[in-house]
Write a structure and sequence with these properties.
The complex is a heterodimer of chains A (255) and B (256).
Chain A (H helix, E strand, L loop, with lengths): L1 E11 L6 E12 L3 E5 L6 H9 L6 E6 L2 E2 L7 E4 L11 H11 L4 H14 L15 H14 L4 E5 L7 H18 L3 E5 L2 H7 L2 E6 L4 E7 L7 H6 L1 H21 L1
Parallel strand pairs in A: 3-8, 3-9, 6-7, 7-8
Antiparallel strand pairs in A: 1-2, 1-4, 4-5, 9-10
Helix pairs in contact in A: 2-3, 2-4, 3-4, 6-8
Chain B lengths: L1 H9 L4 H19 L10 H13 L2 H33 L1 H15 L7 H8 L3 H25 L3 H9 L4 H38 L5 H10 L3 H29 L5
The chains are: A alpha/beta (255), B mainly alpha (256).
The structure holds adenosine-5'-diphosphate (ADP) and magnesium ion.
The site of adenosine-5'-diphosphate has 10 residues of chain A, from helix 1.
């Protein structure tokens, strides 16, 4: 699997009112990688995500998955939104099953895979509960299970923990990291939280706003055997501090 | 003040029947006092007796069934066609632009004004009455469903797209269930117009029906029978309303 974003620009509106939101974005992800895009709010992160998902079209440049250029949305690129994306009338299990059933998989297989993915995210006991009966963290785990169950080649996560309380956010970060390690999924994580990006992703692209562009790429080669320790380890804090300064200078320059 | 606040908190369901009881009491007192000619205001007892006579003669049930049948046929047709059209208009801007001005215009034409035309086209049978109810509710049902569809969260639609969903399955499996509570509520509200219209239609021309019975009663100055008709119409309407609410509660537990 190889996802490539090549020289992609995006403007909204046309003529004089056209607004350049993304300027010449290029990066790529290979099978099994965990890549993060970090930037302050308004730097165009979600737009990158929507372009890859096929929900928007680039104004220039090409996005290709395994050599085929992307036209429109498809189940090979799964997506997890920040919030409000579970179907409120479906139980957790029905939400997880929804993609497979849209794709016309046999019922027995759908049931089996639903049970499997609910267990992967640790929610086998919540299978018959409605989204409104689940906590925010549980809801996002259902959304992740639903995306995985549709068998995508790459999972796009747009600030998946952005709406959660700090403590739950930390445990969800652990959860996502372990999920990635165990299942070998390929993930593109979008976040405005530099710590989250450095903690989870092997490669972090830093974006600057107006227009949105990648200004720096960091290979975060860190020992992730214990995330709680990593959070407070000197090399991690140093790297984080340096990048925070970079981001702050960028924002100051842009405004 | 205090007393009311506390008792409403303890048993709020008592308030509705209480209101009805108060009106009944005032009505009885006025009749008993003899200030108003019984020809204009029959006593509750007289109305009760008139109802008993009508039940015994088998008229009341036959009338109610005739009216309910018309309402049911016309409204079922309206509801069944409004759902797909409202979803189509709400989800496709082209269809919406094409039809919204037209529907918006027809909606403001009072349905009873169509009665002469319907009688010329279809005579005095059942069809014109059923069609009148259809005309009087279809445009409201459609526009209300269209509005609900426009507010389906973008995330829910886009998630379905990234899960491998396409056009029609997204409409039937995401849009339709999402708007179900609003659609049922639109039906509940517009059902009231259906009842208005069936009575109007029967006042103009019918052999049986609750409206027909009222207009006959007027001819013979039987105000007690008019009261019976009015009360029965109100009760049936209330029952249908409660029915819709029950359906909403049971089928859309997620929305409450
Ligand atoms: N559909 C759209 N039409 C016009 N402007 C848009 C649209 N989507 C995003 N934008 C603009 O693009 C910029 C980047 O938005 P977004 O990608 O959501 O940033 P981020 O996710 O980093 O906060 C913002 O200024 C936003 O107003
Ligand atoms: Mg965003």
């Amino acid at each position: 699997m190889h996802l490539s974003v090549n020289g992609v620009s995006k403007s909204f509106g046309d003529g004089r009112q056209a607004k350049l939101v993304l300027d010449d974005i290029s990066f790529s992800i290979k099978s099994g990688e965990f890549v993060a895009l970090v930037g302050s709010s308004g730097s165009g992160k979600s737009t990158v995500m929507r372009l890859i998902a096929g929900l928007e079209r680039p104004s220039a440049g090409v996005i290709a998955l395994d050599g085929k250029s992307v036209h429109g949305p498809g189940s090979d690129r799964g997506m997890v939104f920040q919030k409000y994306s579970l179907y409120p009338w479906m139980t957790a299990a029905q939400n997880v099953a929804f993609g497979m059933s849209l794709q016309g998989l046999p019922r027995a297989l759908v049931r089996e895979r639903t049970a499997y993915f609910l267990e992967v995210v640790g929610l086998q006991d919540a299978a018959r509960r409605l989204p409104k009966e689940l906590s925010g963290g549980m809801q996002q785990r259902v959304a992740i299970a639903r995306a995985l169950a549709a068998d995508p080649k790459v999972v796009l996560l747009d600030e998946p923990f952005g709406a959660l309380d700090l403590q739950i956010r930390e445990s969800m970060q652990e959860f996502l990291y372990q999920l990635w390690q165990r299942s070998g999924l390929t993930a593109l994580l979008i976040t405005h939280d530099l710590e989250e990006a450095l903690l989870l992703a092997q490669r972090v692209h830093i974006m600057a706003p107006r227009p949105g562009r990648i200004v720096r790429t960091v290979e975060a080669d860190l020992d992730r055997s214990n995330l709680a320790h990593l959070r407070v380890s000197p090399p991690f804090l140093e790297l984080r501090e340096e990048l925070v300064t970079t981001l702050r200078n960028l924002d100051a320059a842009a405004s | 003040m205090r007393f009311f606040e506390r008792s409403t908190l303890r048993s709020p369901w008592l308030l509705g029947p209480l209101g009805i009881l108060v009106v009944l009491l005032v009505w009885s007192l006025i009749s008993l006092s003899g200030v108003v000619d019984p020809l204009f205001l029959p006593s509750p007892l007289a109305v009760w007796r008139a109802a008993g006579e009508q039940v015994q003669a088998g008229i009341l049930v036959a009338d109610a069934i005739a009216s309910i049948r018309r309402v049911f046929l016309g409204f079922a047709l309206s509801a069944a066609l409004a759902l797909p059209l409202g979803i189509a208009m709400g989800s496709n801007p082209l269809i919406c632009r094409l039809l919204e001005p037209l529907l918006g215009l027809i909606r403001y034409m009072p349905a009873p004004a169509f009665i002469p035309l319907l009688i010329i086209y279809f005579g005095l049978g059942e069809l014109p009455k059923v069609l009148l109810i259809f005309i009087g509710t279809f445009f409201f049902n459609t526009l209300m469903i269209m509005d609900a569809v426009k507010f389906v969260p973008q995330e829910l639609l886009e998630t379905a797209l990234t899960l491998g969903g396409r056009g029609l399955p997204i409409l039937t499996r995401v849009v339709a269930p999402y708007i179900a509570p609003q659609a049922i509520d639109a039906y509940r509200i517009n059902m009231a117009s259906a009842w208005n219209l069936v009575i109007v239609a029967e006042l103009v021309a019918a052999n049986e029906g609750l409206g027909k019975r009222i207009s006959l009663a007027q001819r013979f100055l039987r105000t007690d029978e008019i009261f019976v008709g009015l009360i029965v119409i109100g009760l049936i309407g209330l029952l249908i309303d409660l029915g819709f609410r029950a359906v909403l509660r049971r089928s859309c537990r997620w929305a409450s």
